[in-house]
Amino acid sequence: MTGTLKKIKLLNPEFPNKATGVINGKASGILNWNDIAYPQMYRMYQTLLANFWKAQEINMQDDIKQWDHLSSIEKDVFLRVNTQLASLDSLQTPTMTQVMDYVTDPSFKAIFAVIAQQEAVHNESYSYILSSLIPLSEQIERFNQAKDDPIVRKRNQIILIAYENFRQEPTPQHLFQLAVQSINLEGIYFYAGFAFFYHLARQQKMLKTSTMISYIQRDEMQHAYFIAQFIRILLTENPELNTPENIQYVYHSISEAVELEKEWARYILKEIEGINLEEFEGYVEYLANKRFRQLGLENHYSGRDNPMPWIHVFSDEMMNETKSDFFEQKSRTYTKVTESNGFDEL
Ligand code: ZN
Ligand code: ZN
User: Fold this and answer.
1) Catalytic site residue 267?
2) What is the mean pLDDT of residues 228-242?
3) How far does residue 277's CA lie from ligand 1's centre (Å)?
């Protein structure tokens, strides 16, 4: 089963509705959620929908008032981080949509569609934050800065190579590599930025922005978890992909992303008082271990504990427990979270 994956025909009535494989399977193209190959995917889909939110629900007035009281360094880092995170999310929407064309199982297609939609919301939320704080001319400048920054380019490169390889040559091997890099993007790369916003929040600064960031984080954790499940299924169904080289690729790629995230943190957070960079490095390793375990692999770094428990306070697990808007303590009635949504901490 080497060779290029074919774009799947929309409808194949001669095949069953329940797919015989996540890729290269037989599937009619019709989705009945009650008749799917991996029933747990229905729960995954429901959890993603339960997370539904949109930027306009959050009133930015308090942050607008506080913005002028931030130091110039805080403002600069705020804007750099915002546009850099927006740049990452911009890659995710089209990539998730593209993967849908090659995955045979319709339940996975549906989940990729929801993830693509959520990435679009994330993208919008960064623009929404910016539009309430700075004029368009400055936004344009900041987005250009994010495109040109050599450290940002360097860290995006490993993601882009894998994503472009799959675009040019959609093979199972490239799909596997794309999925691993997607875990890096969603499960490692956002966290220096998140740490900065939560650091402001614990000083009671820019809480509306942090509320949005916490929703994005909750989505990203769920995406990274789903992609890890997807990789495990892909490797189990296609043993020719389950090679020592590919397992090595996982360890190598995630470790590389960890180093790049540390480098970015040292650069972007160096003048922010109150964030201990050594602690942050431990936090990224802690996150990476979590990703390895979700993939069914061993911890790669020593130390299983979260060295930045104050980030955990803002984490999705915590918000799911409170079942309310974490920062505003306002019930979000449409978020129906159940125990089964729990994030697999292992
Ligand atoms: Zn996102
Ligand atoms: Zn995502």
Assistant:
1) no
2) 97
3) 24
